[in-house]
Amino acid sequence: MRTKNEKMDLAKKEGWFSLIMNTILFVLKYWVGIISGSVALIADAWHTLSDSLTSVIMLFGIKVASKPADSDHPFGHGRAEWITALIIGTLLGVIGFNFLYESIEKLFEHTGANYGMRAIIITVISVVVKEGMAQYAFWIYKKTSVKSVKADGWHHRSDALSSLLILVGIFIGTRYWWIDGVMGIFVSLALFYAAFGIIKESAQSIMGEKPDEKLIQKLEHISFEVIGQDVQLHHIHIHNYGDHTELTCHIKLQPELTLHNAHEIATRIENAIWEETGITATIHMEPKKLNA
Prior knowledge:
This protein is mainly alpha-helical. The protein contains eight helices and three strands. A hairpin with a 2-residue loop joins strand 1 and strand 2 (244-253).
């Protein structure tokens, strides 16, 4: 299992790689977009630049999240990852709205775009590179569980899809003047979809989620293995702080147990939960009813 520092180092590598590659792609796409007069290509270029900006935000968020716990933040700074992801999603939504407006405006003006071979080459490169960057980000996420890295991956994936749509538009744009504006709208919808997913997942994590059913079953299994009887695990709450997770729950024990013995049982269960899941548990003990 990787340490917190190792995970953050991997996430930082993904952030710097994204920043460099997206900046290069932005320059190429914007140049071709200006030459061809394509609002869709220019929109796609700004989408790519937004990835560069969000990579900067992600790197800052990772830096904050890496800070150890202190007196003001006793559970660490891990939730900075989610705040970062929320910012990324919001920026993505704002950019999507802007390009939706520009695409509709272009349709009303009845203006098309003059695509050329350079546009085709750059767009193909963009699709391949961005999907490769998405795969790399998702691979890093699997290794680190850093949510802002996953958000960055979806940023790359949405960019690859929007470039693919534009590529389709390039090949049929000479026949239909309106195809550039329509492709621009599709790019905007892709941005909205990615933004919604990022914001929804991050907001749910910050607001708190109910424990996963598989986790509950695992906790019940652990407690049974420790003391050899059902302790009626209930009132389970998960408090996630990025790379640190706190668990509170209640168990029911025989009322004749001494406080010392009951505390010892709870401690054994807490230690077992930590060893098997990496979750810090705090257990409240209740007397079991005699007829239960």
